[in-house]
Amino acid sequence: MFRERKSILMIIITGLILVLSLSGCGSNGTNDVSAAELYEKELVLAGPRDVAPGPEDAFYMSSILYVWEPLVAIGPGQQPTPKLATGWESNDEKTEWTFDLKQGVTFHDGVPFNADAVMANYERYSNMHGKRSSFYTFHFTAVYPNFESIEKTGEYQVKMTFSEPFALLPYNMANFGSAMYSPDSFDETTDFVTIAQGTGPFKLVEHERNEYVLLEANEDYYGEKAKIKNIRIRIIPDPQTRFSALQAEEIMGVLDLGSLTPELTKQLLEDDRFDLSYDKSTISHYVSTNGTRFPFNDPRMKTALSLAIDRELLVNEFYNGYPEPTINILNYASPFAKTIQPVYDLERAEELVEEVIGDENPVLEIIVPSWALDRYPYKEQAEYIQSVLTGIGLQSTISVVDGAAFRELQSQGEFDISLHIQGLPDLNPMTIFNRFMYSQGSTNIAYSLGFSNERVDELLELLAVETDLERIKEMVDELQDISAEDISTHPMFHDVTLAPHNKAVANYNATVYGVDLTGVSWR
Amino acid sequence: MYVIPYVIKKIVSSIPVLIGVSIIAFLLGVVSLGDPAREALSADGVSTPTIEEIEQKRIELGLDQSLPQQYLSWMKDILKGDLGRSFITNIPIAEEFKKRLPRTFALSFSALFLVIFISIPLAVLMAVNKNGWFDHIGRIMSLLFISTPGFLAAILLMMFFSVNLRWLPTSGYGTLFHLLMPSVVLALGTSGVIMRVNRATMLEVLHKNYIMNAYAKGLTSPLVIYRHALRNSILPVVTLIGNYFGGILGGSAIIETIFAIPGVGSYAVQGITSMDYPVIQAYVLFTGVVYILFNLLIDLLYIVIDPRIRLGGELK
Questions:
Q1: Cβ neighbours of B262 in A, within 8 Å
Q2: pLDDT for A1
Q3: Which residues on B lie below 8 Å from A240 (Cβ)?
């Protein structure tokens, strides 16, 4: 009886081993199922602001969602690169530009992308004069200066005509400058009438304003398809809450500007579950001085301040060493930017201060915008600047003021030193030079920089009509050299896009402006 | 019978207060440092508008008109139920309020619920056990509640209940679990005050002759405490809750931002940081009106709690 039972038991065990072995042989099928499950598993990320403000925004949503695509994108080396336009050419005068369009592309609502769609989009753009956006206020005449017309020259070809040469047109068009939407998703008011329908690898399927956006992979996408079906991006305004949500694994990563402060990122990386990806960002940090009143109306004082700041120390101590210290006004994500190493010379700074200040004892006022404190260690940075000033014999006070009051104080010239950032709105270097260094530049006036340089004005006027790219590069180089010598504003460092994330997520790669969502997958 | 004239009297006396609130709401936006036209044009954070563009925008937003003209036109729209449009997003404010109000009310009333149903029973127990261990712990706790800043309590609770125990979500809105931590944080300060005040009023009442009389009649302790002591000690607490509700409503602005609840409070914070006049004005007006209505409700509650008011009191 006992022997019989033992035999039965042996048969059962052998059977079980056999079944398990066979199931091991069929491992390919099991992996397929798990890959499909991983594709279906929703990924939750978070950002500090609403990345899809909705129909009233010029773009409805940020480019970091990969829903809409432009005619011209930002490619490797930050050069304008074909996207929905497969190529372009111009006449020698750079007044006529012909764009060939990608064929076989449809918008998410099924409307075909062709010359008619492009014409409809430019009809909308030409009516946008200072159209509101959380990402890029759209002034048609600034993006397309001296624009005369656009015409359909084929089913997949359009031609733009300008009254003046415009050699840098593709640089202006990159990304936000030429976003394409289904003509059925907007009306003559230029507002959207449906969720904006693009051509990108993701569709926006759900949007609860200021709460979340839900993306779904576009399975008919013409290019490399997304590796996760649904990505939910929650809006969590408070940095400490985003940090806690990451730790609690409610969200797997963060994205967008100021996604996590450098200090919180450092703390997060002490935990083995997390990793960091970073890349160049279009944001640069500046210290601007009031050039309309004593003592910074004297260029020697501006030079003294620049020489007294140890930018390496600033970057290493407060930003974990990721950004690039610089004295170049042009952000390093610009295709025209060159590296200009900062100079730190405290002795020379002291000499210059003594020459300018003499027996006077001014108390300088440093102003810091309160919104920046949630993103950057600006309080510590201001205290560092204060200690630098003390070191060269200058007294100062620090005031943290809200954003609106900060801009008001800047424009009224009621400050001495201000801490701020500046993003690179497009790939055209002229934008930054025009704003900061042109004697009538909008930022020059609004920030009370009081900057004026005849050669700069002359170069900017020449650049506006120059048609030769090599010559343009030479002039931009000269402008960058001047910016380092004759200071309009003090660049501190070019920032990085930080993309901290949980290691459960693969290929969470930071880009110049966000994270490459199409490559992201579950491990 | 007495209630209707009482309510009418209260509503009529609220009208000058409401007018005052509307003037303050309007002026608060106007006197703050900053230019809404510049803010509206700099919403993307990279643009610097020119002086001409700012001037053009001022005209477009009606900011070139005199202050009385601006106030009258604002009031005219308000009386028609139109709160205007946000200078920054161009979205109608009424639309935003409609969507956000339920969230703010859910948060504020759940905080109020905690204040009433936790701090009052605790205060009664503290008073009944005067100088006992429960009373000592209760007094220390109430001091701790009053002195802990909301943001610190929020971080500590988040670390404990969300990061370590994973019992509650860190942020967001949707379920009761989402409301638990923000409500507790919002209720903390007021609860501490109510605990201390109600303990003091209870102690005062517990020494009255009618309480001793009730005990002498052979009534049970819970009955004496609930029917005679608590009812007579609660009036100052109800008044206090009425006053503190404004604080709860105002405090929700910060709590909503921390816990990522897109309510009216976080909308106001956005409005304040971007000088969005219409949003700031609508928020101040809204909190003023809610405060007045809530206090009217409290006044009506007096009639229920204290029959002496109904029998004579204010109406006489």
A1: 209-211, 235
A2: 47
A3: 155, 158, 258
**What is the value of pTM for the model shown?**
0.88
Got the DSSP string for A305-351?
Answer: HHHH--HHHHHHHHSTT-SEE---SS-TTSTT---------HHHHHH
Pick the CATH number of A202-273+503-522 from 3.40.50.2300, 3.90.180.10, 3.40.190.10, 2.60.120.200: 3.40.190.10
**Domain A65-185: CATH class, spelled out:** alpha beta
Q: How many CB pairs under 8 A join A and B?
A: 133
Q: What is the spatial distance between Cα A366 and Cα B8, in angstroms, rounded to a whole number?
A: 55
Q: What would the pLDDT profile of A50-107 be if each residue is shown by its tens digit?
A: 999 999 999 999 999 999 999 999 988 889 999 999 999 999 999 999 999 999 999 9
Whether residue B99 lies within 8 A of chain A, CB to CB, comes out as yes
Domains of chain B as residue ranges with CATH: 3-79 (no CATH), 100-273 (1.10.3720.10)
- The answer to whether A53 and A61 have CB atoms below 8 angstroms apart is yes
Task: Say whether residue B182 is in contact with chain A using an 8 A CB cutoff.
Answer: no
Which ipTM was obtained for this model? Answer: 0.87
From B39, B89, B171, residue closest to A245, measured CB to CB? B171
Give the residue among A505, A403, A211 at the shortest CA–CA distance from B40. A403
CB atoms within 10 A of CB A32: 10
| CATH 3.40.190.10 domain span(s) along chain A | 65-185, 202-273+503-522
Inform me whether the C-beta atom of residue B47 falls under 8 Å from chain A C-beta atoms: yes
Q: Which residues in chain B are contacts of A436 at CB distance < 8 A?
A: none
Residue in chain A closest to B158 (alpha carbons) equals A244
pLDDT 10s digits, B66-102: 999 999 998 899 888 899 999 888 889 999 999 999 9
- The reply to whether CATH 3.20.20.370 applies to domain A280-496 is no
| pLDDT at res. B280 | 87
